[in-house]
Amino acid sequence: MKPVLPCLLAILLGACASTPQQASVKNDTLYQRLGGAAGIEAVVDASLKRVHGDLRINIFFENTDVPDLRRLLIEQICAASGGPCVYSGRSMEEAHSGMNLSDRDFDIFVEDLIAAMNEVKVPAPLQQELLGLFGPMRPQIVGQ
């Protein structure tokens, strides 16, 4: 019975020691570092404003339900950045099917997104982290 007590104590102490580290990782998501829902909404709102005013690509959003697009972008960024959201939209291939977007169109959208993040003062390292989540979507968007 005595050998069990040191093992049990070691397990309990190990669990206590690892709890703060796990909690800090959980609390240090990109979602939280972006400012949570309010931070993501600010980025999306500034991005949509810029895209709407960008004559190079705003034609692609001409027949778009902007409030729905806003909701979906917020969900997508929230979910991808470790937030509590679930993305309820279509796949990127489906959403961009028939649009025949070019690499240039994609790059212009990214330019507008970066300018929007600068406008709402998202630090450069967080911008890179967010762009890193969505960069791999290029093949699912371009040429569809």
Automatic annotation (TrEMBL):
Keywords: Heme, Iron, Metal-binding, Oxygen transport, Signal, Transport. GO terms for molecular function: heme binding; metal ion binding; oxygen binding; oxygen carrier activity. InterPro entries: Globin-like_sf, Globin/Proto, Hemoglobin_trunc, Hemoglobin_trunc_I. Its cofactor is heme. SUPFAM superfamilies: Globin-like. It comes from the Bacteria. Heme binds at H96. Residues 1-23 form the signal peptide. Binds 1 heme group per subunit. Gene3D superfamilies: Globins. Belongs to the truncated hemoglobin family. Group I subfamily. This is Group 1 truncated hemoglobin. It comes from Tahibacter aquaticus.
